[in-house]
Amino acid sequence: MLLDILILLIGLATLILGGDVLVKGASRVALRFDVSPMIVGLTIVAFSTSAPELLVSLKAALKEAPDFAMGNVVGSNISNLSLVLGVACLFGYIPIHKGTARRDWLVTMLSSILLLYFASDGNLVLREGIILFAGILSYLTFLLFKTKKDQIKLDVTYDRSNDTRFEQFKDLFYIAIGGACLYFGSEWFIDSAQSLASGLGVSERVIGLTVLALGTSLPELFTSVIAARKGETDLALGNLFGSNIFNILSILGITSIVHPLGVNEVIINSDMIWMLVLTLGILPLMLFRRRLGTVSGIILLSFYGLYIFMVLK
Q: What's the pTM?
């Protein structure tokens, strides 16, 4: 049991490290070929930061553990908008902008409804995966034209005057190491989670919705808390909505294209409903308040606590 937990933690750390290293290498390679920072931010960075969740869901599907794949996404979405956003609210006020309410919330809600509709027959198949992935491509295309006049600030920098062969090799090395970390990290993460579920005598659904979802939500938690403490609170809410959109349209889209996913009836009738209720419940908080603060944070954290209690009950 302790060994399973240790391997789980090592796998999670390896996943997070792999995603971070992959972002640095891939972004610098793209910038070297004169790809604009905006496109890098909307594509490479967005997909790379979702890479840990994608690899976990893909590994789970290929290992015939669909409850891990679906629980990881649904649980992460619930965690993002209740636990992560709730904690961020306690660290600083989060202003509500009309664009966030009209665009990001709406796309998040529509994506969640579409997922529930597709999963209602107990399966996510190739055709539905293609539709979901087409959705994320459409959303990114819309953002590309919508924000073409905006400046996107990247954490990754590229100095053309210092572009030596060593720097080029280092970026390729980052990509290779990042990919390897994601592959082996997801392998260890899923294998140890399966052993943990068996050892504790609980279902893979419960492990997926709690352990896997919490683990893969840690980057969003750290990012949002740091953004809130720095006063960059618009990033906190925007990042979480964006993460949920990517989780559904990109991760489940790609996963169901590669391998059909069976969907647990309990996840359909319970967990997805919790996800929809939470997403819908955030709307009045956004409409009737100009910013989310301590009260909103307590409400969201209470929701998450109640949800976890019902899952473990």
A: 0.84
Strand duo 261-262 + 94-95: pairing: unpaired
- How far, in Å, CA of 109 to CA of 90, rounded? 24
Asked if pLDDT for residue 236 goes beyond 80, the answer is no
Structural domain total, the chain: 1
User: Under 8 Å CB-to-CB from 44, ≥6 apart: which residues?
Assistant: 23, 26, 27, 30
pLDDT over 70 (residue 101)? no
CA distance 44 to 51: 10
Tokens of 173: 């090395």
What was the pLDDT predicted at 189?
79
Distance, CA of 23 to CA of 156 (rounded, Å):
8
CATH number at residue 279: 1.20.1420.30
Tokens for 121? 């027959």
